[in-house]
Design brief:
Layout: E1 2-5, H1 16-30, E2 35-38, H2 48-56, E3 59-66, E4 72-80, E5 83-87, H3 89-92, H4 108-119, E6 124-128, H5 139-144, E7 148-149, E8 166-167, H6 169-174, E9 179-184, H7 196-200, H8 208-223, H9 227-230, H10 241-247, E10 251-254, H11 255-262, H12 265-270, E11 274-282, H13 291-301, E12 306-313, H14 317-322, E13 327-330, H15 331-335, H16 337-342, H17 344-359
Parallel strand pairs: 1-2, 1-11, 5-6, 6-9, 9-10, 11-12, 12-13
Antiparallel strand pairs: 3-4, 4-5, 7-8
Helix pairs in contact: 1-17
Pfam families: Gly_kinase (PF02595)
Organism: Nocardioides kongjuensis
EC number: 2.7.1.31
């Protein structure tokens, strides 16, 4: 058999590349004659640059930029020809904030990465959005590019209170002639019931009162820039980074679709007998822009079965089939929670070997 292994990261334990290697090792342990092809995936969040570098090659450029609370952190951007790929989570990810005080987090660091890309001669910049710990509408990014306003833009969303004037002439001039693409795993607008603050605020430490405050401040920020852009799908991605990139003329695409196209996943699925995907928690949120659902859809188009290996499987068989999976296997159920978190690579290898007994002759 030919097996295509295309997982996302297992958040907090394994990168997508590590997960793919562990699954492949387990499969080969039981079925050494099967051909196993690795295609680690990303939806635009953490691991975006590593996944694309593993497939596309290119040059990794080391940079230093501001984290959400202002201290400097190392980051890498990937240059492939005249295209530069940026992973926003490297400098504004929730892992840098501990899921706390999102109202004070700034996206200045993402703006620094965008400047580095432009200075490297990029004619096309693809920014992966996901896993952010910030909620400033991308104001920090714009500030890093030279935006001016009647309030401070570089110290977090909570300081957008009272904003009524924003001058974007300098940022737009800097990126003139550069194609900007926001690769996201969500299509939420900037504000409102399904906006950045209400939908994703809780995972950034925002209580209900702060969510309401920030939503109002982002409404004012949109009024001072472009309300129509704030309504665009994906404007609310990464705490509103999508909005800032669209203000600069950027367009939004599905992160999983962009990565799938870059790695030729559709062709690889047609050449496979079975497609394996996975992520840390396989639940019903996996249906919207996430890697497993995207991989399953591509497998279905190729008329190939698709199974998921996950840290936890939190849906029933009916929901699993609705998500396009022929089967889903839980790491915690197979080896126990202590082993799953204590030795995630070894445990995933063991689970993959068990799954191979079912699916490989």
């Amino acid at each position: 058999m030919r097996i295509l292994v295309a997982p996302d990261k297992f958040a907090g334990t394994l990168t997508a590349v590590e997960a793919a290697e562990a699954i492949a090792a387990g499969w080969r342990r039981h079925a050494p004659d099967d051909e196993v092809v690795l295609a680690p995936m990303s939806d635009g969040g953490p691991g975006f640059v590593d996944v694309l570098h593993a497939t596309l090659g290119g040059e990794l450029l080391a940079v230093v930029a501001e984290a959400p609370q202002g201290h400097e952190v190392p980051a890498t951007i990937l240059q492939v020809g005249d295209t530069v790929y940026i992973e926003s989570a490297q400098v504004c990810g929730v892992h840098l904030t501990g899921g706390r005080l999102g109202e004070f987090g700034t996206t200045v660091g993402v703006g620094r990465l965008l400047l580095e890309a432009v200075n490297a001669g990029a004619r096309r910049v693809v920014v992966g959005l996901g896993g952010s710990g910030t909620n400033d509408g991308g104001a920090g990014l714009l500030a890093a590019l030279g935006a001016d306003a009647d309030v401070a833009l570089d110290v977090g969303g909570i300081f957008l209170d009272g904003v009524s004037r924003v001058d974007l002439s300098i940022p737009r001039g800097l990126v003139d002639g550069v194609e900007i693409i926001a690769a996201t795993d969500v299509d939420n607008p900037l504000t409102g019931l399904f906006g950045a603050s209400k939908t994703f605020g809780p995972q950034k430490g925002l209580d209900e009162e702060t969510q309401v405050l920030l939503d109002g401040f982002l409404e004012s920020f949109a009024a001072a820039t472009d309300r129509r852009v704030a309504l665009e799908p994906g404007a609310g991605a990464a705490g509103g980074l999508g909005f800032a990139l669209m203000l600069l003329g950027g367009t939004r695409v599905s992160g999983i679709e962009l990565v799938a196209e870059a790695v030729g996943l559709a062709r690889q699925a047609r050449d496979a007998d079975l497609v394996i995907t996975g992520e840390g928690a396989f639940d019903f949120s996996s249906r919207a822009g996430k890697v497993p659902a995207g991989v399953a859809a591509i497998a279905a188009e190729a008329l190939r079965p698709c199974v998921a290996l996950a840290g936890q499987v939190l849906v029933g068989s009916r929901e699993m089939r609705a998500l396009g999976m022929d089967a889903a296997y839980s790491l915690v159920d197979a080896v126990g929670e202590e082993r799953a978190f204590g030795d995630p690579s070894g445990a995933l290898t063991e689970l993959a070997a068990r799954v191979a007994r079912t699916w490989s002759g």
